[in-house]
Each structure stands twice: as structure tokens, then as C-alpha cells.
TrEMBL record:
Protein name, as recorded: histidine kinase
Domain HAMP intervals: 216-269
Organism: Qipengyuania benthica
Entry superkingdom: Bacteria
Record localization: Cell inner membrane
Amino acid sequence: MRLIPRSLVGQTLLAVAVALIVAQAISAALLYRAAEQRRDTALLNTAAFHLVAGPASPRSAEDRRARRQIRQMVQAARSPHRDDGLRRLPRRLRYIIQDASPLLPTERRDAESETGIDAILSAQGVDIAELVVTTRSAEADPLLATAAQRQPRLRNALAGRQPELLVVGLRREGDAQWEVARVLDPPREGRFLGTLLLQTAILVAVLMVLLWFVLRRIARPLDALADSTRRFSGTGAPEPPLALSGPEDIRRLIAAHNAMQARIGSMLDEKDVMLGAIGHDLKTPLAALRVRIEGVEDPGARATMAATIEDITRTLDEILQLARIGRSDVAAERTELGALAASVVEEFEDMGEPVTIEQHGRIPAPVRITWIKRGLRNLITNALRYGGSAAITVLREGDHAVLRVEDEGPGIPEDRLAEMLEPFTRGEASRNRDTGGAGLGLALARAVAEQHGGTLVLANRPEGGLRAEFRLPTG
């Protein structure tokens, strides 16, 4: 399955969606970090406030507030949202004075929190002799565990959540006792991630819908332009001008395409007229010359002149055929390539040529039968001329059909393989058809392959000889 779409619309939508998701993820990380920093700052400030305000608070008022806090916690314990009632401890648990440090033997001090609280207390004019800060679970705190045993309702309120406690111990200058503040670590916002995911999903959906309509307005005329160009490059047949649509930039592109297509069509029409005139003007005197040589008395000279005229006529036919490829009005037909190749092989077998064929299943493909046969004949003729025999194989490789022609000849030097596909290029310098012809066979075969959206590939066989392959798309 393809993960990255091929179309402009699909790739743009995917890129925007990924960019938006990444941006939202970065934003979420920054927001979460800022929220954690605010949460930690609030926790330290609350602990510092208890230490500063603790000694000056009236005991009776604090007792009343403590009882009210306990009642609120018990009520919250009976509520589906009981976690909200555990944000504060009763006053008698939040602030106490004791003789020893609150740090338990197995606990570690929180140096970062100590630095923060030290700065807050120093700013309030508190003379600090010693300061310890640690974090422990509520069930591991001796004071809170004792209070929970005495108060069943408090025990029920704390059950299930197991909150964390920030415990701060302060010993002031000139004082042997420790002031200890306990602050419940407030619960983190559990719905933060879900809210962000929902927000991201809504943003992506809305943006994708709007962007899809905008991109379709751009992509639709581009698709029509690509289809028109593909058809024109395949057949060369003139087409009606495309309607101007889409944004202004696309309209200018379509207008330029229409003008270019009209110009190319006019040039191709002129070329066809010129080729027709050349063919007529050259073949007529050649035919007349063929009649006149019948009066030559020397049979050897007459045969030589006739062969020369025939050679010129065949070369002229090949040139005209090469020039006309791509201007065929015949539509491609879906044809079984094995049967097509077998029909060409039969032609050579009827002439007694050593040609064999091997097929690997049925391989249908859209082709122009006449042109494919002509190209295949050229490849087989080359194999017979240089190798003495030809072996044809029809097979499928991926989404391409392969018509392979192999011989046992001398092959082609590696540095000349690409050159041999050019017109009028031959393996040896003479123009004698008995030793190679005019050098148009491979060029014509390459043009046929390219007309069908395929390629002609030449390669030397490891065991000797040349391999020529038509590689044609099956779709």
C-alpha cells in the first residue's frame, strides 16, 4: 500500500496535515511545560505562605477552618468528583511545629525546590538557618497516616487517589524547633490531552475540506492539460483547444499550451505534406529508372543497378516510416503480445529462418499492432543478420511487458550501445545491406517503443551475443 499519494492534491493535503499536527504537538509540549512550571511555582508559593503565615494565625480560627476542610473532604469523598476535594489539607495538617527535621531517613532532598522556596522566604524577610524539602506519598507521611487512622472520613477521602505531598521543613535563625508545611500536590488536568486531540482533529478536518476545494480548482485544469498533452504526444493528432479555467496562473499555462499545440500541429502537418511530396518526387523517377534499366544488355550490370534502385527505395521507405511515427490516427488496441509475436515469428519460419519463441503466460497490452510488428521484425532481422539466429521471449516484469530478442552474434561494444539507437548509425562503416543496411532499424524500433510509452533496451549477453528488449506498459 502506498503511504505517500502521487497526486498534487494528495501530497499537498498530506504535507499540510503533517505540518499542522507537528505544530500542534510542539504547541502542546510548550503549553504542558508552561502549565507544569505554573503548577510547581504555585505549589512552592503555597508552602512558603504556610510557613510565613503559620505562627501569626489565630489558633481558634484555624481549628474552625480545619474542621470545615475535613467536612468538605468527606463530602467530596461521596461525590463522583471526589479528587477535587483533596486539593488542600486541614490547617492542623498543613502547618505544624516539631522538634526534629521532617526528612525521613530514606528520603532524598529536593534541591531545586529548596532553592525556589529559599528565594521566596528570603524575599519575605525570613531568616533561614536550615531548610529541607522533599516529596512523599500521602500514605508514607506519618502525620497524615495517623490523622487518617483517627478520622475514618478523612481516610475515605484519601483512599483511591494516593496523592503526593510536598513537605517543607524550616528552622529559623536562633530557633531549635522546626516549622513544617505540607501541601498536597494538585491533580494534573487529565482532560488536557483529550481536549488538544479534539481541537487538532477539528482544525485538520476544517482545513483539509477548505484546502481540498482550493486544490481541486487548481488540479482539475492541470489534469485536463496533462491528458491533452499525453494524447497529443502519443498520436500528434490535433485536438480542440482546452477551455481556460482555474486561477490566473493556470489560465496562462493553458493558453500557452493551446498556442504551442496549434504551432506544433501546424508544423507536423507541413512535415507530412513535405514527406508526401518527397516520397512522390523521389519514387517516381526511381520507378522510371527501374523501367529504363531493362534496356541494359549486360545482365550483371542490370542486376546491380536494379539492386541499387531497390536499396534506395527501401531506405526511402524506412526514412518516411520513421518520420511518420507518432502521427498515426490508429488507436491502440489491447492485444495479447504472445500471439502478436508468434505471428511475426511465423513469417520468418515460412522463409526458413532459424527463429524460436518462448512465452510465459498471456500478457495483454494496448498497442498499435502494425507498428509493434514492424519494430519486432527489425529486431529479428538484426539478430539474423549479425547472429545467424534469433530467440524471442515474451514475459512480464512488474507492470511492463517485455518482448526480448536474443542472438549469438558478436554483440556491440558497451560504449556504443546508446549510439546504436540513433538514426543512420551502424556497427560497421559500409552501407551495404548485406552487412547491415542503412542504420535505421534500431532507430525505428526505438521510436515505436517510445510511441507506446515504453523503451528499447540493448544489452550484451554474458554468454555472447546481443539482447534487445521492447519494454511496454501493460496498463
